[in-house]
Design a protein that fits this description.
- By secondary structure, the chain is mainly alpha-helical.
- The protein has 12 helices and 2 strands, in the order ααβααααβαααααα.
- It has a two-stranded parallel ribbon with strand order 1-2.
Length: 269
Protein backbone atom coordinates (compact mmCIF):
# COMPACT_ATOMS: atom_id res chain seq x y z
CA UNK A 1 0.00 0.00 0.00
CA UNK A 2 2.93 2.33 0.73
CA UNK A 3 4.14 1.92 -2.86
CA UNK A 4 0.68 2.81 -4.17
CA UNK A 5 0.63 5.97 -2.05
CA UNK A 6 4.05 6.94 -3.38
CA UNK A 7 2.75 6.44 -6.92
CA UNK A 8 -0.27 8.59 -6.07
CA UNK A 9 2.02 11.30 -4.74
CA UNK A 10 4.18 11.14 -7.85
CA UNK A 11 1.15 11.29 -10.13
CA UNK A 12 -0.32 14.29 -8.32
CA UNK A 13 3.03 16.07 -8.49
CA UNK A 14 3.39 15.30 -12.20
CA UNK A 15 -0.17 16.29 -13.16
CA UNK A 16 -0.24 19.59 -11.26
CA UNK A 17 2.00 21.06 -13.96
CA UNK A 18 -0.42 19.97 -16.71
CA UNK A 19 -2.56 22.68 -18.28
CA UNK A 20 -5.37 20.16 -18.86
CA UNK A 21 -5.89 19.73 -15.10
CA UNK A 22 -6.25 23.44 -14.42
CA UNK A 23 -8.40 23.93 -17.50
CA UNK A 24 -10.80 21.24 -16.25
CA UNK A 25 -11.05 22.96 -12.88
CA UNK A 26 -11.49 26.30 -14.64
CA UNK A 27 -14.39 24.89 -16.65
CA UNK A 28 -16.17 23.91 -13.43
CA UNK A 29 -15.51 27.28 -11.82
CA UNK A 30 -16.81 29.13 -14.88
CA UNK A 31 -20.11 27.28 -14.63
CA UNK A 32 -20.29 28.06 -10.90
CA UNK A 33 -19.81 31.77 -11.62
CA UNK A 34 -22.75 31.71 -14.05
CA UNK A 35 -25.00 30.17 -11.38
CA UNK A 36 -23.79 32.07 -8.33
CA UNK A 37 -24.17 35.48 -9.97
CA UNK A 38 -27.92 34.78 -10.14
CA UNK A 39 -27.98 33.53 -6.54
CA UNK A 40 -26.20 36.70 -5.37
CA UNK A 41 -28.62 38.91 -7.30
CA UNK A 42 -31.59 37.02 -5.85
CA UNK A 43 -30.20 37.37 -2.32
CA UNK A 44 -29.58 41.10 -2.81
CA UNK A 45 -33.11 41.63 -4.15
CA UNK A 46 -34.54 39.83 -1.11
CA UNK A 47 -32.37 41.88 1.23
CA UNK A 48 -31.38 38.71 3.09
CA UNK A 49 -27.96 37.00 3.24
CA UNK A 50 -27.42 33.40 2.19
CA UNK A 51 -25.32 30.72 3.81
CA UNK A 52 -22.11 30.70 1.74
CA UNK A 53 -22.10 26.88 1.64
CA UNK A 54 -25.50 26.87 -0.07
CA UNK A 55 -23.87 28.14 -3.27
CA UNK A 56 -22.25 24.74 -3.82
CA UNK A 57 -25.67 23.08 -3.54
CA UNK A 58 -27.17 25.44 -6.12
CA UNK A 59 -24.32 24.53 -8.46
CA UNK A 60 -24.39 20.76 -8.04
CA UNK A 61 -27.87 19.50 -7.20
CA UNK A 62 -29.63 20.70 -10.36
CA UNK A 63 -29.39 17.88 -12.98
CA UNK A 64 -28.08 19.99 -15.87
CA UNK A 65 -25.48 21.70 -13.71
CA UNK A 66 -24.27 18.38 -12.34
CA UNK A 67 -23.97 16.97 -15.85
CA UNK A 68 -21.83 19.90 -17.00
CA UNK A 69 -19.64 19.94 -13.88
CA UNK A 70 -18.89 16.24 -14.29
CA UNK A 71 -17.61 16.95 -17.80
CA UNK A 72 -15.00 19.25 -16.26
CA UNK A 73 -13.76 16.37 -14.13
CA UNK A 74 -13.68 13.98 -17.09
CA UNK A 75 -11.60 16.50 -19.01
CA UNK A 76 -9.27 16.76 -16.02
CA UNK A 77 -8.45 13.02 -16.08
CA UNK A 78 -8.85 12.50 -19.82
CA UNK A 79 -5.25 11.27 -20.17
CA UNK A 80 -6.04 8.01 -18.34
CA UNK A 81 -4.43 5.48 -17.89
CA UNK A 82 -1.77 8.09 -17.01
CA UNK A 83 1.10 6.46 -18.89
CA UNK A 84 4.18 8.62 -19.37
CA UNK A 85 7.91 8.18 -19.92
CA UNK A 86 8.41 7.13 -16.29
CA UNK A 87 5.61 4.56 -16.08
CA UNK A 88 7.72 1.61 -17.21
CA UNK A 89 10.36 2.35 -14.56
CA UNK A 90 7.68 2.62 -11.86
CA UNK A 91 6.10 -0.70 -12.84
CA UNK A 92 9.49 -2.46 -12.89
CA UNK A 93 10.53 -1.06 -9.50
CA UNK A 94 7.21 -1.87 -7.81
CA UNK A 95 4.49 -4.14 -9.18
CA UNK A 96 1.66 -3.77 -11.65
CA UNK A 97 -0.82 -4.13 -8.80
CA UNK A 98 0.79 -1.25 -6.91
CA UNK A 99 0.83 0.94 -10.03
CA UNK A 100 -2.82 0.13 -10.79
CA UNK A 101 -3.83 0.87 -7.19
CA UNK A 102 -1.99 4.18 -7.37
CA UNK A 103 -3.88 5.12 -10.55
CA UNK A 104 -7.24 4.26 -8.96
CA UNK A 105 -6.35 6.31 -5.89
CA UNK A 106 -5.38 9.18 -8.19
CA UNK A 107 -8.82 9.05 -9.84
CA UNK A 108 -10.54 9.35 -6.45
CA UNK A 109 -8.08 11.97 -5.18
CA UNK A 110 -8.65 14.18 -8.22
CA UNK A 111 -12.42 13.90 -7.77
CA UNK A 112 -12.01 15.03 -4.14
CA UNK A 113 -9.73 17.89 -5.15
CA UNK A 114 -12.03 18.99 -7.99
CA UNK A 115 -15.22 19.22 -5.92
CA UNK A 116 -13.47 20.66 -2.87
CA UNK A 117 -12.04 23.35 -5.17
CA UNK A 118 -15.56 24.12 -6.44
CA UNK A 119 -16.88 24.22 -2.86
CA UNK A 120 -14.15 26.64 -1.77
CA UNK A 121 -14.62 28.76 -4.88
CA UNK A 122 -18.39 29.00 -4.43
CA UNK A 123 -17.97 29.99 -0.76
CA UNK A 124 -15.48 32.66 -1.77
CA UNK A 125 -17.84 34.14 -4.36
CA UNK A 126 -20.75 34.32 -1.92
CA UNK A 127 -18.62 35.51 0.99
CA UNK A 128 -19.61 39.14 0.47
CA UNK A 129 -23.32 38.33 0.53
CA UNK A 130 -23.50 35.58 3.12
CA UNK A 131 -22.56 33.95 6.38
CA UNK A 132 -21.26 30.60 7.63
CA UNK A 133 -23.45 28.50 9.90
CA UNK A 134 -25.63 25.43 10.37
CA UNK A 135 -28.93 27.12 9.52
CA UNK A 136 -30.47 27.48 6.08
CA UNK A 137 -30.95 31.01 4.79
CA UNK A 138 -34.36 32.56 4.27
CA UNK A 139 -33.85 33.04 0.48
CA UNK A 140 -33.00 29.35 0.02
CA UNK A 141 -35.93 28.19 2.14
CA UNK A 142 -38.29 30.34 0.11
CA UNK A 143 -36.71 29.09 -3.13
CA UNK A 144 -37.30 25.50 -2.02
CA UNK A 145 -40.97 26.26 -1.40
CA UNK A 146 -41.27 28.52 -4.45
CA UNK A 147 -43.26 31.06 -2.44
CA UNK A 148 -41.48 34.22 -3.55
CA UNK A 149 -42.59 35.76 -6.84
CA UNK A 150 -39.19 37.27 -7.63
CA UNK A 151 -37.49 33.84 -7.82
CA UNK A 152 -38.40 33.40 -11.48
CA UNK A 153 -36.89 36.79 -12.34
CA UNK A 154 -33.43 35.51 -11.43
CA UNK A 155 -33.91 31.93 -12.73
CA UNK A 156 -33.07 30.55 -9.29
CA UNK A 157 -34.33 27.05 -8.52
CA UNK A 158 -33.92 24.90 -5.43
CA UNK A 159 -36.85 22.43 -5.29
CA UNK A 160 -35.55 20.40 -2.35
CA UNK A 161 -37.79 21.29 0.59
CA UNK A 162 -37.71 17.77 2.10
CA UNK A 163 -33.92 17.72 1.81
CA UNK A 164 -33.75 21.00 3.74
CA UNK A 165 -36.02 19.66 6.48
CA UNK A 166 -33.91 16.53 6.96
CA UNK A 167 -30.43 18.11 6.95
CA UNK A 168 -28.47 21.06 8.20
CA UNK A 169 -26.47 23.00 5.62
CA UNK A 170 -23.21 21.32 6.65
CA UNK A 171 -24.62 17.78 6.48
CA UNK A 172 -26.29 18.57 3.14
CA UNK A 173 -23.02 19.85 1.69
CA UNK A 174 -21.11 16.84 3.04
CA UNK A 175 -23.59 14.35 1.53
CA UNK A 176 -23.70 16.19 -1.79
CA UNK A 177 -19.93 16.42 -1.92
CA UNK A 178 -19.51 12.71 -1.24
CA UNK A 179 -22.22 11.69 -3.71
CA UNK A 180 -20.59 13.66 -6.52
CA UNK A 181 -17.14 12.34 -5.64
CA UNK A 182 -18.47 8.77 -5.85
CA UNK A 183 -20.24 9.41 -9.16
CA UNK A 184 -17.24 11.12 -10.76
CA UNK A 185 -14.85 8.47 -9.44
CA UNK A 186 -17.05 5.84 -11.06
CA UNK A 187 -16.92 7.70 -14.39
CA UNK A 188 -13.17 8.10 -14.00
CA UNK A 189 -12.83 4.38 -13.29
CA UNK A 190 -14.78 3.52 -16.44
CA UNK A 191 -12.61 5.89 -18.48
CA UNK A 192 -9.43 4.41 -16.98
CA UNK A 193 -10.49 0.79 -17.45
CA UNK A 194 -11.58 1.30 -21.05
CA UNK A 195 -8.38 3.16 -21.98
CA UNK A 196 -6.12 0.63 -20.25
CA UNK A 197 -4.22 -0.96 -23.11
CA UNK A 198 -6.54 0.54 -25.74
CA UNK A 199 -5.33 2.60 -28.70
CA UNK A 200 -8.73 4.05 -29.53
CA UNK A 201 -9.71 5.91 -26.31
CA UNK A 202 -12.49 3.37 -25.75
CA UNK A 203 -12.83 4.36 -22.10
CA UNK A 204 -13.49 8.00 -22.98
CA UNK A 205 -16.45 7.02 -25.14
CA UNK A 206 -17.70 4.55 -22.51
CA UNK A 207 -17.65 7.21 -19.79
CA UNK A 208 -19.40 9.77 -22.01
CA UNK A 209 -22.13 7.27 -22.98
CA UNK A 210 -22.74 6.30 -19.34
CA UNK A 211 -22.77 9.94 -18.28
CA UNK A 212 -25.18 11.27 -20.91
CA UNK A 213 -27.46 8.22 -20.79
CA UNK A 214 -27.79 8.80 -17.05
CA UNK A 215 -28.65 12.45 -17.62
CA UNK A 216 -31.25 11.68 -20.29
CA UNK A 217 -32.80 8.94 -18.16
CA UNK A 218 -32.98 11.32 -15.21
CA UNK A 219 -34.64 14.11 -17.15
CA UNK A 220 -36.86 12.29 -19.64
CA UNK A 221 -37.73 8.85 -18.24
CA UNK A 222 -37.66 7.06 -14.91
CA UNK A 223 -35.14 8.97 -12.82
CA UNK A 224 -34.76 6.25 -10.18
CA UNK A 225 -32.79 4.15 -12.69
CA UNK A 226 -30.30 6.93 -13.38
CA UNK A 227 -26.86 6.80 -11.77
CA UNK A 228 -26.94 10.59 -11.56
CA UNK A 229 -30.11 10.39 -9.47
CA UNK A 230 -28.46 7.86 -7.17
CA UNK A 231 -25.58 10.28 -6.58
CA UNK A 232 -27.88 13.10 -5.43
CA UNK A 233 -28.67 12.96 -1.68
CA UNK A 234 -31.68 15.17 -2.34
CA UNK A 235 -33.24 12.32 -4.34
CA UNK A 236 -31.54 9.24 -2.91
CA UNK A 237 -30.06 8.27 0.46
CA UNK A 238 -28.14 5.14 -0.51
CA UNK A 239 -24.71 5.30 -2.18
CA UNK A 240 -24.06 1.53 -2.01
CA UNK A 241 -24.37 0.97 -5.81
CA UNK A 242 -21.32 3.19 -6.38
CA UNK A 243 -19.19 1.21 -3.94
CA UNK A 244 -20.13 -2.01 -5.74
CA UNK A 245 -19.55 -0.57 -9.22
CA UNK A 246 -16.16 0.87 -8.28
CA UNK A 247 -15.13 -2.45 -6.70
CA UNK A 248 -16.00 -4.26 -9.93
CA UNK A 249 -14.05 -1.66 -11.94
CA UNK A 250 -11.04 -2.05 -9.62
CA UNK A 251 -11.04 -5.86 -9.92
CA UNK A 252 -11.39 -5.65 -13.71
CA UNK A 253 -8.54 -3.14 -13.91
CA UNK A 254 -6.25 -5.45 -11.88
CA UNK A 255 -7.03 -8.26 -14.31
CA UNK A 256 -6.45 -6.00 -17.32
CA UNK A 257 -3.23 -4.44 -16.00
CA UNK A 258 -1.78 -7.89 -15.30
CA UNK A 259 -2.16 -8.81 -18.97
CA UNK A 260 -1.15 -5.50 -20.49
CA UNK A 261 2.12 -5.25 -22.41
CA UNK A 262 4.30 -2.16 -22.06
CA UNK A 263 6.28 -0.84 -24.99
CA UNK A 264 8.90 1.85 -25.40
CA UNK A 265 7.72 3.73 -28.45
CA UNK A 266 10.14 5.76 -30.57
CA UNK A 267 8.46 9.10 -31.16
CA UNK A 268 10.41 9.61 -34.39
CA UNK A 269 8.81 6.59 -36.06
Amino acid sequence: MFSSLRILQHQMKFERHTARVWLGIGMGMALCVHILVRVSAYSAARGEPVNVMEGFLYCVLEPQNMMLLSLGYLFLISDAPFVNEQTLQVVVRTQRRAWNTGCLLYIVAQACFYYLALLGFSMLLLGKHGYIGMAWSIPTVQASQNINVIISNFRVSFPYWEFIQENTVISAVALTLWGNILYSSMLGGILYLGNLGSRYSLGTWMAIVVHFSGYITRREWNGQWSLQTLSSPAENDNFCPFYIIFLVIALASYWRAKRMDYHIVDKDT
